[in-house]
Request: fold
Amino acid sequence: RNPVHPVNPVKKTPFETPFGLALLLLGITWCASVSWGYNLPILFATPWVWAGMEVTRVLTEAVKPIRFLKPYRFGMLIALLLSFRIGHEFVYRDGRRSEMNEPMGAIFPQLSGIYSDAETAKLYRDLKQLSERYGPNFKTLPAFPQANFLTKTPPPLPLDWVVNRETNGDITLIFKNLNEKHPVIFIQKSFRQKIESDPELEVTRRIFQNGTVLEETSNFWVISNYAL
Reply:
């Protein structure tokens, strides 16, 4: 007869513990930073992934003959759902959701169905007025995604975010396009402090230093006659 060997207890892997699971899920969601991700998408993803796994685990244990209550799981679930709710209140690159009462479709039809706060609405009205005055050959710097799409004008540059990391540090093509097309430049005032010192904003800084300010609004400097 074969000798009876005692059954060895199954050891849990580090990722089967609550702390290890948290690190695993946070690590997965933090992968968003590879593509210049931000914290709000992480807050959206982590709670629901973790919550789904925890709810599944709790329901699975509920059908077992003997069940031991583990309150910490519910505490983690509540804390994570609360973090999701708080993160949900702050709209990415905008304001608080509770203040989003300005219909953006009234400014640009392409934004119909989208609401924002008064400050953002003022920024887009400013863009619309300037584009009507100086367009269609204009460019917003350093970053105003879809500005030319909204104003139905051809983009003079091949990218919306004119920062060094988007060009792999080679701004030769940017300067070539600017020298050939000579668009009027709308520089966003919200980047005032970064323009002076941030190496990512080299293109914007050189235009600001060498160009002529034609007009100044609450949100933009309008610049032309720049030498690059």
